[in-house]
Write a structure and sequence with these properties.
The complex is a heterodimer of chains A (422) and B (465). Chain A is of the alpha/beta class. Chain A is built from 13 helices and 13 strands. The N terminus of chain B is likely disordered. The longest helix of chain B is centred in the middle third of the chain and has 19 residues. The chains are: A alpha/beta (422), B alpha/beta (465). Chain B: It comes from Streptomyces antnestii.
């Protein structure tokens, strides 16, 4: 049994298999998992397993399918309250999936049963403790041998704040987003999220690699000079550190965030490795990539790789008419047409491949696909879209790295505290 | 050994009129204290998942009731520096337990989770999720924190006076139970034809107004297989015992000797009636260490070696500082005890440790230790080795099986939470040698009879309050 010190960078990020490196035109693919799928009527499809949504088997099956398709990672949606069809308020609907399991724990449950795919659960920064989140994701990185990430989210929902009882939030709707009061609130929530991520990241670095020395001669288990207080003091919390969990295998697990507006673009520029964005065409994609890169420069991270992934809801079938008809049928079941922040695509794998490559040319480096029906559209991605992209030389034929950072072409970062004291 | 099919032989070995009690056994993953011998050549990683998986799979192979994880939310310090002589570092409890659910099938998964630096909604979600993802194997050891030292890592920071610690813990658990019970288990109908997913839009509705928590809304995890996680309590104060008698399913106690175990057992079980509960609704499971050898003599020799591994000279000085509350680094661990007296001011030397509070009269402890050391010609290190935590069970497999069985039948315990001193293989020999003997006697299961931890512990399903 070896000590806990992570493997050297070379063996963590390089390929143990003879597979070719992805070509320059390769794109990255992730799938966003949420219940039975993103369409509110997805659970009613024959292929869906609505009674299994709260079982380990269901999630394992989905992630293993994604891994068979060589996808970079899956994200898992979460929230600190029931799902709702309203923007900020709960609803009283009984015709849609309600309830979900903790996403970090779902990812952890699946980790030992998968080998290469990245696991990126959603965490809500607004009400949670950065100390707990940091060690939870570090532990996910240990149990997955370097495949962990997180997708950070804020909550502006009054009902979710009432679940914690430590703050009250005002009522507002999507139409109020540009009001001064709501702008101030969202700016504050995103500032808090940025602080949260800063603490999470500092705690990951609060143990240097090799801090565990097991020096029998002196009786010291650790070299305490390689452990660091993080001494974070912010408006919402102060955290002393160090973490109780040693630096995770990737050093810094992958941080990602969904972004539609300037506050989250700044959060991505300041703190994330991946931003998920929702352009509806190549021009919008070009513009949003420019905004994120500008935010990165402002944050002093101009030289660092930040992926910008396009989010798309997908209905995939062998011919366009079938996909369109399925979308229409599901909308009929739901009682209204499905709308989304992301572009909704209905068509064939080849058509989707065309669209992804067009958006890639506009500057996106990858895509996070939201299957409309998990049981249908996830296998359509892995068994239809992926082979199509492979034929075009635009997607890997085998996993080329054994960590998530490795799959994303991100080096294992130096430890900020080691650099400061070197 | 008696033949398992011959009940008369077994009963003859146990002169009780009542039927034999079934023993409960659990495995405590070696912790961040000097019980754990990290310097042994066989000692492995305390953080890699493979260590946890090996340990859990060994416990499951031996048909143990559950795995137990402790927790501490700030690294210990002594003399203003991070304590470096013991294992340092551990994983997040929920995350590693849930991963272990993937590599085991029946083993219960008990996590120690603090009620001071968490919020009920989040903890209830995590336990309900763990229970779903393990098909009903989750348990929660509810603990409280005592100091602002740990609070420096959390939003609420601060400090809770002793009396408020338990009132917050009680209210935290009450609130979490309200959240677990906010789903009854029949809400999800998922009827495709009618398009009804939920029977009732109010599933998960709750409202709690109390001294520590004023929250309301809808819990978003449907009822889990066990309804609620099994509840453990570990505190030893009068308030802790009352808390356990009123609210816990099991106690993780520190009394592993026969006399102390019986006294504790009698005390706690006698409190149950006041809370309208019966004798079998609360299990007493002391922590116990062990050393096995081919013979009793060999085990005794091994136990002495382990104690010397556990208490190096440097460790001995640090342990003396728990009582003296002073920097004793100038003292020679192989020399006599300090002749200066303990500092009786606020304890400042060791932080993040519960045991410093055990020495309520440091002057008396120091006096007693000096006398014992002088009488026995003990050095500081000898003294710490002799007065510290001796192994609970030392002997051949037959001796240890006899002792464990005798203690349980004599109501010193309902079973034990075993704390091996080696990671990850410290349970292997026990599983291979002691467990079969207990099985032969008919006092420990040969196969799991149920699927949930409640089944293993013989606890009834909770009724919805």
């Amino acid at each position: 049994m070896s000590s806990s010190s992570p493997l050297p960078e070379s063996s963590r990020s390089s390929s143990p298999s003879p597979s070719p490196s992805p070509s320059p035109s390769s794109l990255h693919l992730a799938v966003a998992l949420d219940g039975a799928g993103w369409h509110p009527a997805a659970w009613r499809e024959e292929v869906s397993r609505p009674r299994a949504l709260f079982t380990a088997r269901y999630w394992t099956d989905l992630v293993q399918e994604a891994e068979r398709g060589l996808l970079d990672f899956v994200t898992i949606e979460d929230g600190l309250g029931p799902q709702s069809s309203h923007f900020t308020e709960p609803d009283a609907r009984t015709d849609q999936v309600r309830g979900r399991l903790d996403a970090v724990l779902v990812a952890s449950r699946v980790a030992p049963l998968t080998r290469r795919i990245g696991l990126v659960p959603t965490v809500v920064a607004t009400h949670t403790e950065p100390f707990h989140i940091s060690k939870a994701i570090a532990t996910l990185d240990y149990v997955s041998s370097g495949r962990a990430g997180l997708r950070v989210q804020v909550s502006a929902r009054r009902n979710e704040a009432a679940h914690f009882g430590r703050r009250t939030l005002p009522a507002f709707g999507i139409e109020d987003l540009d009001s001064p009061e709501v702008k101030e609130l969202t700016a504050d929530l995103f500032d808090e999220a940025a602080d949260h991520i800063e603490v999470v990241r500092r705690l990951w670095d609060s143990w240097e690699d090799g801090a565990e020395i097991r020096d029998v001669a002196t009786g010291r288990f650790i070299d305490r000079d390689k452990l660091h207080y993080i001494d974070f003091e912010g408006r919402h919390f102060s955290v002393k550190g160090p973490s109780i969990t040693p630096r995770p295998p990737q050093g810094q697990p992958v941080v990602s965030a969904l972004a539609h507006r300037s506050e989250p673009y700044q959060l991505v520029g300041r703190a994330a490795d991946i931003g998920y964005v929702t352009p509806h065409d190549a021009a919008e994609a070009r513009a949003v990539v420019g905004e994120i890169h500008a935010a990165q420069t402002t944050a002093g991270r101009a030289g660092e790789p930040v992926h910008v992934f396009g989010d798309l809801v997908v209905f995939l079938d062998d011919d366009p008419a079938t996909a369109a008809a399925r979308r229409e049928r599901l909308d009929g079941l739901a009682g209204s047409p499905y709308t989304s922040d992301a572009r909704i695509f209905a068509g064939t794998p080849a058509q989707l491949a065309d669209l992804l490559q067009e958006l890639q040319e506009a500057g996106l480096t990858g895509f996070r696909l939201r299957p409309a029906v998990a049981g249908h559209d996830l296998p359509a991605i892995t068994q239809g879209l992926v082979p199509e992209l492979q034929r075009r030389g635009a997607f890997r034929h085998a996993y080329e790295a054994d960590t998530l950072r490795g799959l994303l072409g991100l080096a294992r970062p130096a430890n900020r505290y080691a650099a400061a004291t070197a | 050994m008696s033949n398992v099919t011959d009940g008369a032989v077994e009963r003859a070995a146990h002169p009780h009129e009542r039927p034999l009690k079934q023993i409960h056994l659990a495995a405590h993953f070696p912790g961040v204290n000097n019980t754990t011998v990290w310097s042994d050549p066989e000692a492995g990683s305390h953080i890699e998942f493979s260590s946890f998986a090996h340990f859990a799979q060994t416990a499951e192979r031996a048909k143990f009731d559950f795995l137990f994880l402790a927790e501490g939310l700030r690294l210990r310090e002594q003399g203003g520096e991070i304590y470096d002589l013991d294992v340092v570092g551990r994983p997040d409890t929920f995350t590693v337990l849930t991963a272990l659910a993937a590599v085991t099938e029946r083993l219960g998964l008990t996590g120690t989770i603090n009620s001071t630096f968490n919020e009920p909604y989040e903890v209830a979600r995590q336990f309900a999720s763990l229970d779903h993802l393990s098909d009903g194997r989750a348990a929660w050891n509810v603990v409280t924190s005592w100091d602002a030292f740990t609070g420096e890592n959390f939003r609420r920071g601060g400090f809770l006076p002793q009396d408020e610690r338990y009132s917050r813990a009680k209210e935290f658990l009450t609130t979490a139970n309200e959240l677990f019970d906010s789903w009854h288990g029949d809400e999800i109908v998922a009827d495709r034809a009618s398009g009804t997913f939920l029977r009732d839009a109010r599933a998960g509705a709750f409202r709690h107004q109390g001294q520590h928590f004023d929250i309301g809304g809808q819990f978003n995890v449907p009822r889990s297989p066990q309804g609620r996680p099994v509840i453990f309590q570990a505190g030893d104060s009068d308030e802790g015992r009352e808390f356990a008698a009123s609210s816990a399913d099991a106690i993780f106690s520190r009394y592993s000797t026969l006399d102390e175990g019986q006294a504790f057992y009698t005390d706690v079980k006698s409190r149950l009636a006041r809370h309208g509960r019966t004798h079998d609704q609360l299990l007493i499971l002391p922590a116990a260490t062990f050393v096995l050898g081919e013979t009793d003599a060999e085990a005794a020799e091994l136990a002495r070696e382990v104690r010397r591994q556990q208490v190096s000279g440097a460790t001995a000085i640090k342990h003396l500082e728990f009582v003296w509350n002073r920097d004793l680094s100038a003292y020679d661990p192989e020399g006599p005890l300090p002749d200066i007296d303990p500092d009786l001011g606020e304890h400042t030397v060791a932080r993040g440790r519960a045991q410093v509070r055990m020495y309520r009269d440091p002057l008396a402890t120091a006096r007693e230790w000096r006398e014992r050391a002088a009488a026995n010609k003990w050095s500081i290190r000898d003294l710490v080795i002799e007065t510290g935590n001796r192994q609970s069970f030392v002997g051949s497999p037959a001796t240890v099986a006899d002792t464990i069985d005798a203690y349980v039948q004599a109501d010193a315990a309902d079973g034990f939470i075993l704390v091996p001193h080696l990671t990850p293989g410290g349970l292997d020999t026990f599983a291979d040698t002691v467990v079969p003997l207990l099985q032969e006697r008919g006092v420990f299961r040969k196969e799991y009879e149920g699927t949930t931890l409640r089944d293993h512990l013989g606890l009834a399903e909770p009724t919805i309050s």
